[in-house]
């Protein structure tokens, strides 16, 4: 089970990450001209005005090839189908569990979506109020968000602790193809699960290693405007060992 | 007929009060900002995009913006009775209209973005300070927007056009009296999203007033830009 939970982050899409490629990043505000001239193409969060590429959002501008985009660095979690999140069970109904996923509406985990058969009379034996789970968003509709536990690395998170970071910084914490989170796991020896909603669960053998993992993650989440973070992270571990 | 030689606080006619802007002042909000024109201080908090209730207000083609402006009871000399009033409801609506043209909420159907604006200290120009703070807070919340909104009041004491009136100037009574002309515009465009006026003004002076406000908005935009960049490049400003 441990190893499976460990791998939960692999369910994420990595496309948004751009950690190791040190293209020039700069902070831009809405309406600011990022590039002048015809050399670039507008991507996410940008638009073309006349000859210029203009930012349509507050964030970090970066160019991959000719395409310029602006990545958000602040803001609420916007649930999307397929996201793996960490949530806390807030209620048990006759047909499933209500889960607080730190978003506008809470998620619902139907009893059929648990990985094994659960007797309706003994639902709290499987998940009780207050339990923390890693789950996948199975459908996101105006009426509500449905969760599932069927999938690799999903399920109840026992022990350890959880904390929050700003959700839009999750891709940086994970790193390119999981490089950053793998590094942190290796150097601290902790089990870490990162939810797309910004909740992070850590469990390790000793208190020290858990605190170290948390500090490392917060270090990454704070340094939004710095490129090549994986190397910086290694240096951070060297100086903090 | 005496022409004003100097403004009560010694400013030039086209000089704004000293501005302060700070982003991220409310930790529990998705986006927040403080904006001050001299003694007028406004804070704004943004929550969302989030699910909108009651459901009949939901719009399946776009998200909606909901602003709430209020003076806190201690912000004025005589205690203001807390709660919504005719005035605060009006300002809430015009703030929504001033901000909406730059927002792109179509990506978030059926949701709402809530903006709470509170005035901590009132010394005239509260709606303009509120709009400036709200625009910063929306950007901070990561809401897609084509531009920042800058807002300033241009006014008139007797026959002299002045920028960013203080309470003392708003209460001017000689000659033609005081005019208060609040405006808001996207920073990089010459269009206006808010024009509201109290008092009298000659038609030919309106053009001049608009020019003055365009100039002032450039200064405001720089202050807003600096505040937003500061929070990323040196987040310790908040600690």
Helices and strands in order:
The complex is a heterodimer of chains A (241) and B (239).
Chain A: H1 2-6, E1 26-28, E2 33-35, E3 41-42, E4 46-49, E5 52-55, E6 59-64, E7 67-72, E8 84-92, E9 96-100, E10 107-110, H2 123-126, E11 132-141, E12 144-148, E13 155-156, E14 161-164, H3 170-174, H4 179-188, E15 191-194, E16 199-203, H5 207-222, H6 229-240
Parallel strand pairs in A: 3-7, 10-12
Antiparallel strand pairs in A: 1-6, 2-5, 4-5, 6-7, 8-9, 8-11, 9-10, 11-12, 11-13, 14-16, 15-16
Chain B: E1 19-23, E2 31-37, E3 40-51, E4 64-71, H1 86-99, E5 111-121, H2 126-140, E6 149-157, E7 160-163, H3 167-170, E8 178-186, E9 194-198, H4 203-233
Parallel strand pairs in B: 4-5
Antiparallel strand pairs in B: 1-2, 2-3, 3-5, 6-7, 6-8, 8-9
CATH superfamily of the largest domain in chain A: Nucleic acid-binding proteins
Order of helices and strands of chain A: HEEEEEEEEEEHEEEEHHEEHH
Arithmetic mean pLDDT of chain A: 85
Return Rg of chain A in Å.
Answer: 20 Å
Tell me about the biggest sheet of chain B?
5 strands, mixed
| Widest sheet, order of strands of chain B | 1-2-3-5-4
Low-pLDDT parts of chain B are none
| CATH third-level topology of the largest domain in chain A | OB fold (Dihydrolipoamide Acetyltransferase, E2P)
Number of helices of chain A: 6
Mean pLDDT of chain B: 92
Care to give the gist of this entry?
The complex is a heterodimer of chains A (241) and B (239). Chain A is built from six helices and 16 strands. Chain A has 241 residues and is an alpha+beta fold.
Structural write-up:
- Helix content of chain A is 22%, strand content 32%.
- Chain A is of the alpha+beta class.
- Chain A folds into 3 domains: 2-9 and 78-156, Nucleic acid-binding proteins (OB fold (Dihydrolipoamide Acetyltransferase, E2P)); 26-72, OB fold (Dihydrolipoamide Acetyltransferase, E2P) (Beta Barrel); 161-240, K Homology domain, type 1 (Ribosomal Protein S8, Chain: A, domain 1, 2-Layer Sandwich), CATH 3.30.1370.10.
- In chain A, the strands form 4 sheets. Chain A has a 5-stranded mixed beta barrel with strand order 8-9-10-12-11. Chain A has a 4-stranded mixed beta sheet with strand order 1-6-7-3, with no helix packed on it.
- Mean pLDDT of chain A is 85; it is low at 1-22.
- By secondary structure, chain B is α+β, with helices and mostly antiparallel strands.
- In chain B, β2 (31-37) and β3 (40-51) form a beta hairpin.
- In chain B, α1 crosses α2 (126-140) and α2 packs parallel to α4.
- The radius of gyration of chain B is 18 Å and the shape is globular.
- Chain B starts with 18 loop residues before the first strand and ends in a 6-residue tail after the last helix.
- The A-B interface holds A 27, 29-32, 45, 47, 54, 56-60, 72-76, 78, 103-105, 142, 168, 222, 224-225 and B 24, 30-31, 47-51, 58, 60, 102, 104, 108-111, 139-148, 186-188, 224-225, 228-229, 232-233, 235.
């Amino acid at each position: 089970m441990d190893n499976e939970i460990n791998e939960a982050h692999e369910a994420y899409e990595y496309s948004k990450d751009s950690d190791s490629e040190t293209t020039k990043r700069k902070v831009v505000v809405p309406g600011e001209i990022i590039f002048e001239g015809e050399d670039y193409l507008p991507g996410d969060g940008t638009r073309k005005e006349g000859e210029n590429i203009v930012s349509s959002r507050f964030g970090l501008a970066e160019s991959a090839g000719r395409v310029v985009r602006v990545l958000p660095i602040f803001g609420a979690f916007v649930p999307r189908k397929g996201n793996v999140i960490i949530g806390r069970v807030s209620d048990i109904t006759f047909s499933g569990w209500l889960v607080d996923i730190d978003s506008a509406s809470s998620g619902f985990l139907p009893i059929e979506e648990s990985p094994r058969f659960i007797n309706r009379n003994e639902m709290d034996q499987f998940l009780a109020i207050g339990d923390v789970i890693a789950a996948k968003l199975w459908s996101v509709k105006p009426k509500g968000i449905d969760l599932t536990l069927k999938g690799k690395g999903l399920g109840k998170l026992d022990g350890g602790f959880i904390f929050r970071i700003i959700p839009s910084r999750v891709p940086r914490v994970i790193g390119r193809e999981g490089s950053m989170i793998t590094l942190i796991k290796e150097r601290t020896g902790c089990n870490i699960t990162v939810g797309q909603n910004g909740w992070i669960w850590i469990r390790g053998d000793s208190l020290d290693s858990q605190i170290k993992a948390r500090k490392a993650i917060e270090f990454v989440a704070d340094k939004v405007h710095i490129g090549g973070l994986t190397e910086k992270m290694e240096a951070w571990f060297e100086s903090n060992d | 007929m005496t022409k004003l030689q100097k403004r009560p606080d010694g400013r030039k006619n086209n000089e704004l009060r000293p501005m302060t802007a700070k982003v991220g002042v409310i930790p529990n909000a998705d986006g927040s900002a403080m904006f001050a024109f001299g003694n007028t201080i406004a804070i704004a908090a943004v929550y969302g995009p989030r699910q909108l209730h009651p459901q009949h207000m939901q719009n399946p083609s776009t998200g909606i913006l909901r602003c709430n402006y209020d003076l806190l009871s201690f912000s004025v000399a005589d205690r203001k009775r807390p709660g919504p009033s005719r005035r605060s409801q009006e300002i809430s609506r015009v703030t929504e209209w001033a901000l909406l043209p730059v927002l792109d909420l179509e990506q978030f159907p059926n949701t709402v973005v809530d903006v709470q604006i509170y005035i901590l200290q009132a010394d005239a120009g509260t709606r303009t300070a509120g709009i400036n703070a709200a625009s910063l807070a929306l950007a901070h919340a990561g809401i897609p927007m084509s531009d920042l909104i800058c807002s300033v009041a241009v006014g008139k004491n007797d026959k002299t056009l002045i920028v960013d009136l203080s309470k003392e100037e708003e209460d001017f009574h000689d000659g033609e009296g005081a005019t208060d002309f609040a405006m808001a515009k996207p920073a990089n465009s010459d269009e206006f999203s808010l024009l509201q006026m109290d008092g009298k003004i000659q038609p030919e002076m309106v053009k001049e007033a608009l020019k003055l406000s365009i100039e002032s908005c450039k200064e405001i935009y720089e202050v807003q830009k600096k505040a937003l960049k500061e929070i990323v490049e040196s987040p310790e400003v908040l600690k």
